[in-house]
Amino acid sequence: MDFGELKNDTAFVSKVEASSKAIDNIRKMIEQAIEMNTEEMSLEDKVKFDIFLAYSVNSLYFMYLKVDGQDVTTHEIRHELSRIKEVMQKNQQVLDKKLRPTVAVDAAKRLVKGGLYDFKKKNEEFKQRYQNKHHHQQSRSGKININYNPNTAVNRKRKFEDD
C-alpha cells in the first residue's frame, strides 16, 4: 500500500494494515460461509447460520456506510439490523423454551388426583360408620332410633339426661 504523505505516521499505517487484514479475514469467512453445505445441518443450525450470515453482511454494509461518511441514522440499514436482532431474540426464546423441563402429564394427574380430598367418598364412609355405630341407639321410648344424631339439640339434651 502506498500511504503517500502519511507513510511516516506509524500509528495510522499500523491501523490501516490491521484493518486491511481484518477485512481480508472477514472476506474469507464469508466466502467459506457461502460455500458451506447446509443440507447436512439440522434446522436449528440452519436458522443460526442464516441469522449469522444476515447480521454479518448487514453489519459490514453498515460499517462501509460509516467509513464512506454517509449518515446512517436515517438509512434503512438500521431498520434491517434491528429486524435481524429481533429475529435473534425470537430464536433464543425458542431455544430456551426447548431447554425447559417438561412435565409428565400422566404422573401430574395422578399426583393431583391423589392429593385431592374426595368429599363424596369421605361423606359416604362417614355416614356408613355413623350408621353402624349408632344403629342400635335407643330413644326414651325404648324403640330403636335409626336416625339418631347426637349433635342435634334434642338428642344432646336427652344424652345429658340419660347420663
UniProtKB/TrEMBL annotation:
| Predominant location category | cytoplasm
A single Gene Ontology CC annotation of this entry is: exosome (RNase complex)
UniProt KW Manganese keyword: no
Q: Which GO terms describe its molecular function?
A: DNA binding; RNA binding
- GO BP: any one term: maturation of 5.8S rRNA
Q: Sum up the protein's function in the record's words.
A: Plays a role in the recruitment of the exosome to pre-rRNA to mediate the 3'-5' end processing of the 5.8S rRNA.
Return the protein name: Nuclear nucleic acid-binding protein C1D
Lineage of producing organism: Eukaryota, Metazoa, Ecdysozoa, Arthropoda, Hexapoda
